[in-house]
# Entry
Amino acid sequence: MSEYFQDYVAVAAFAAFGLVLVVLTLGITYLVRPSNPTKEKVTTYECGVDPVGEGWNHTFIRYYIFGLLFVVFDVEAVFLFPWAVAAESLGVPGMIAVVIFILTLLEGLLYAVRKGVLKWE
Amino acid sequence: MDLDYHALAPEIVVAATILLVLGLDVALPRRRKYWTAFAGVVGLTLAAVPLVTLALGGGPGARSMLGGGYVVDDFALVLKAVFIAGGYLVLLMSVSYIESDRYYQGEYYLLLLTSILGSLIMASSRDLITVFVGLELVTGPLFLLAGWRKGDARSNEASLKFFILGVLSTAVLLYGMSFLYGLTGSVTFEGIRTAGAGLLDSGAFRLAVLFTLIGFGFKITAVPFHFWAPDTYEGAPTPVTAYLSVGSKAAGFVGLLLLCYRAFPSVTEIWGPALWVLAALSMTLGNLTALRQDNIVRMLAYSSIAQGGFILVPFAAAAVTNDPLVIQEAASATIVYVIIYAFMNLGAFAVVIEGARRTGTSMIDGWAGMWRYAPRLAVLGAVFFFSLAGIPPLAGWYAKFAMFLAILRPGNPWTAALAVIAAVNAVIALVYYARVGKTMWMDPLPDGASDGERTARPMSGALALALGISVIFVILAGVLPFQLAGVFAEAAKVVTAGI
# Structure
């Protein structure tokens, strides 16, 4: 049992180091820097331009569907790259499996197109 | 590639059916969508064929794949047959219901079949990762199906509650599983069993076992993890409720059987008392609350919680003994109960679907005098509700008989106490099941209802077929229980092997 938790000493040390690093850098700058807040300085930082709207913001629901489709094809790529590397040794059965995999995803994309997901109006 | 395509054939056929249903849904115009239901029914029928050839084929007893993580043995085959049969009945029950309200038909069957595929994977899984993937494949589509009636606030509530508590239970389950892997260094049930024997005194291992049990406790709606069930059952479309109370529940019990008998047999003192308490609470609370329900779907929800308690009872018997024969009998009692429960509960839900369509209400009072305008439906209703109560010669009596036999066998005071609790609950349950029968057969018609109006609309053929199949099973299994039990004993022998 105790051995099991000793493996986690490294994890704990790592976490403590991360904490110390943040506290140290922020703490030192706090001690060194002058503090002179103005209205301009305390507004939300939004890439340098004046912030628009409030923090509570609606996001268009369509982005969600695009995000979902992106994940699908991202995962496809995750599976395709290792296959491509080992394609020669996997041979014909590997080829068939990958074709089935891609066709399945293609059917899903076809369904999405049919449902009008890719139309932007 | 060491894949055994014959052993995987049922899963492959169901997966191909899913792709076919999606393709049909894309290709067909709106008024032809019912072909997707037809494709689903045919696909499930075809998926049963390799099950028969695997069972009759003999050859190697257990076909093991993926490093022992995926096994097709007698246990897996029996439960896959149940899942396919249950899914088949739910598909048949859905056809007229889904068509009548212009729901999204293609997607409905796609999701239902996906959930069935998940339960097939559950039955074969023999490691933590496969069991988790299977369980999530069962539950994931059901979150969507529970909210299928988009315009209905109750359906939305059902879906949301189910989703939040489902995710919570998944998190607890995964937490427990990560502990298990960390402590034993293995994800396979065999590995956990071997390493677990040396970890009896470890508090972390105790927690890990309990966390995994709690995770499954949500899935089988055991008290006190049942809060989501009544609202979800009531709000979801009725065929989905039928599937939730049978398919997804049976999948949870399969996971529990596998974990308790294959992964944790050396630590019965951890899970035995826990399941004893869950069983006693589920039976008592489920039954007492069911007594007070006036909506029939809600009553069936609490009844299903109570039946889950009865199914848990034999686990407590297996935990107090080392006799392999008694343990095997306990496992067999659980499997028998799950299977008989599946058929009689699906039958009861089919009656509810048809009854609600005829009378336009799911309040029990509204069904008064049903035998006047729907005598056959009233007979079927009586059959299924009395079977749930455990009245011979209907199948339910044998389920309860096997359960009592298993719990009385060890002769331990604690198991005897549980047997007493179960006996009292069986009597309580009879009250509310019989009340439905009494309302249908003895009460006068409600005011303003004429006989002629309610007889006008005939039942759909698919629903009639579902009712026919389940009533034949319920009567046959009740009259010839021991022939049926022989099949399940084989499955129990496999799952308890090596204890």
Notes: Chain A has one domain: 2-114.
